[in-house]
Amino acid sequence: MTVRPSRADVARAAELIRDAEHVCFFSGAGMSAESGIPTFRDGLTGLWENYRPEDLATPEGWHRDPDLVWGWYRDRATRLRTVQPNAGHQAIAELGRRMRADGRRVSIVTQNVDDLHERAGSMVDAHLHGSLLGPRCEFCPYRGEPDLSLAAVRPSCPKCSSSLRPNVVWFGEVLPENEWTAASAAIEGCSLLVIIGTSGVVHPAAGLPMLAAEAGTPIVEVNPVRSALTDLATVHLPSTAAAALPDII
Ligand code: APR
Ligand code: ZN
Description:
Rossmann fold, 8 strands, binds zinc ion
């Protein structure tokens, strides 16, 4: 990709980070692209290229063919085990350590279902769309160990014998309340919002940056192209997560 932000914009973003008491990062699929995790639509390749997202990522798809849906998420969870956090994840984790040592705060709100922020050493405040690892019971509150997501055969709940399902939010489902509350609080309360790699079209998550904009909080966006959220940004860096984040941090 031959995109490069201006030096002035990089310096402005770095200065906003340096002056902030609380930096909140809001990440989407682009955050993990350079780790080799395909975005949702790119992901429907190989074995899965003949399926539609509605067959694989909706409650209707699950009820129609739970083994098929389980297999797709199992593949994604298996693939996740083979990739690593990129320089963008590392830079955010490093900033978190530095700011904590100064008595300041970094928070992370992600739409991603991977664990790459955590593996880079960050604590994630909210996984708005759940996680590929650690399935949950479709009926009771039981949540399985991360590795159970790699099971070849769709597992049953040890508590109630209903089926376990991926612990992700499908199209048409409500976001988990705890995650939503934590995400709103972080975005409303931060002194700088950094948006990375999200198209900003999947609601309700895409509405969260508006909370910062309404509070007058400065917003930095990292995305090689313009997104639905670019108009809210104080500074838009037309670059990738792994290139821009180490630069501004
Ligand atoms: N660095 C930064 N941004 C990137 C990079 C990169 N290396 N590569 C791509 N992008 C940008 C794209 O330009 C695009 O704007 O990342 C964005 C990815 O957009 P989407 O694929 O729509 O991902 P996201 O916004 O996270 O989707 C939201 O929709 O698929 C569902 O539940 C899923 O959480 C997901 C939600
Ligand atoms: Zn159960």
